[in-house]
C-alpha cells in the first residue's frame, strides 16, 4: 500500500493510492484536488506499476519535480518529495506494511525476559519516600557507590524527559510521535523500533517506524507481547528472543533474527493509547533494566504529549470548521451543526431572500478594482449582520447579489417573518451606510422573497460539497428580485404573503409573468409593519 501526504489548512492530509492510480490537480474532478493556482487543472498522476508506483507529469504548465529534479516521469521511493509547481507532497509506503504482529504462545518470565509493572518502574522518581519510623532500628546505610548509581539513573530519566519536553513544545501535533521516537533512539541503543496507536476502530496501527541505520525492512513483534503490554500495563525486556521458550514456535521471530527487544505501553492513568517497541536484530543483551525503566518513563510522558497534541489538533480543526461555518450560518446554528453533525439532504419549507445593488455595473466601471472589492466587502458585511441576528443562512454571494435562506438547515416555523424582517432591517443598514458615505453616489438595493418547499443540504461532488437550497422556490425568489422589484423595494411572492397577511402592510402588484414560468405569479410589495392596536383598559 502507498499514500501521498501533504499539508492543508494547518493539518496533514493523507490520500491512499488506489490500484487504479490517482490524478492530482486543481480540477474538482481530480482524485487529489489542490487549491493552488500554480498547479494545472490535471497536473500529474501516480500509477501503480506492479510492486512500484510511477509518477507521470500530464504536460503541466509549471512542471513536476521529484527530490528537486524536474521529471516527465519517475519511479517513486518511500519518502520522495514531490513538487507540483510549488505545492509539496510526500510519497510514502503505508506503515502497516512495515510492522508485523506475530501470533505467539503465552509468555514465561525466564531466559532473560523481564516483565515489570509500569507503576513499579516509574515510582522511583514519581513517589515520595515514606516518613522514617524512629522507633525501628536504623538499617545499614547504602554504600556511596549504590547511592551514586541510583542518583545517576534518576538523573538520566529526568534529563531525557526534560529534553523530550523541549522538543515537543515547538512540535506540530502531527510531528509529536516522530519527535518521541527521535528521543527514544537518542537515549536507548536500539537499531529499530516503532510507535503504534489505537485507531477509531480499536486496532493498533503504526504511526512512526524508525531505523537507526536507514534500513526499510519489516519489524516483527509478537502479538502476545503487544496484548500483554496493553492489557496488564507492563513493560517487557527480552535479552535473547532466540533462546527464550516464549518464542519457541515463533518462526517469524527466528526468520527476522530478532535478539534483544523491549516493549512499553503508552499510558496515562487507566488509559493505554498505544505501544513503543524497540529491538536489536543481531545482538543479545543490548538492553538493560535501566533502559527498560527509561523506555517506560518516556512512554508515559509521550502518551501525555500525544493525547494533548491530539486534543490541540481537534480544537484547531473545530476552530477552522467553526470559522468556515460562521461565514454562512449564525453562531447558534454553527454550534448546533458542530455538536449534532452536518444535516443530510432534506426537503423543508423555507423562505429565500435575494438582494442586489441596482446599477452596480455602471457604478463599478468608474471605480478601480480594489475600490470595488472594498465597497462589496463593506456592503456584504452590513447586510449579513441582520441575517445572522435572525438565524438565517447566507447561501452565497453572487457578484453584487446576496442570497439568504430562512428555515434551513433547521426548520423554523416563522421563516417567512424572519425573511421579511431581515429585508426591512437590511434597508435600514443600507441607509446608515449611505449616510456614512456622504459625498459619494448612494447605493440602491432591491430585494425579492419567496416561500415554499425546497431541497436543502450539502450539495456537490464527493470531494467538495457546500450547503445550499435548490428548487422552484429559489428560482421564483430570484426572478422576483431581478424582474419585478425596483430600487428600495421589498417584493414577496404569494406564499410568503399568505403566511404574513395581517402582520404587515402590503401593496398588491398583481400577477406577473416570470422567465421560465408557464403561469404568472402574484406578487406584493412590503410597505411596513402593521400597526398593532392598543389594548383598552
Largest sheet: 8 strands, mixed
Are there runs of 5+ residues with pLDDT below 50, and where? 105-111, 123-143, 247-256, 531-537
Class from helix and strand fractions: alpha+beta
Question: What distance separates the N and C termini?
Answer: 82 Å
Number of helices: 12
Q: What overall form do the CA principal axes indicate? A: elongated
Q: What gyration radius follows from the Cα positions, in whole Å?
A: 34 Å
Quote the beta fraction.
Answer: 25-35%
Report the strand count. Answer: 27
Helix content: 25-40%
Overall residue-averaged pLDDT value: 79
Key traits:
33% helix, 27 strands, single chain, six-stranded antiparallel β-sheet, alpha+beta, 537 residues, elongated, 12 helices
Write the layout of secondary structure elements.
Elements: E1 2-8, E2 11-16, E3 22-25, E4 32-33, E5 44-49, E6 52-57, E7 64-66, E8 69-70, E9 73-76, E10 81-84, E11 87-93, E12 99-102, E13 113-117, H1 118-126, H2 144-169, H3 176-187, E14 192-198, E15 204-211, E16 219-222, H4 223-232, E17 234-238, H5 251-255, E18 260-268, E19 271-280, H6 289-325, H7 331-340, E20 346-357, H8 360-365, H9 369-389, E21 393-398, E22 401-406, H10 415-436, E23 445-460, E24 465-470, H11 472-484, E25 490-493, H12 494-500, E26 504-512, E27 521-529
Helix pairs in contact: 2-3, 2-6, 3-6, 6-7, 9-10
Overview of the structural elements:
The termini are far apart. The chain is built from twelve helices and 27 strands. The strands form five sheets. Strands 20, 21, 22, 23, 24, 25, 26 and 27 form an eight-stranded mixed sheet that branches. Strands 2-1-11-10-7-8 form a six-stranded antiparallel sheet, with no helix packed on it. A six-stranded antiparallel sheet has the order 13-17-18-19-14-15, with helices on both faces. It is an alpha+beta fold and 537 residues long. A hairpin with a 2-residue loop joins β5 (44-49) and β6 (52-57). α3 (176-187) packs antiparallel against α6 (289-325) and α9 runs antiparallel to α10.
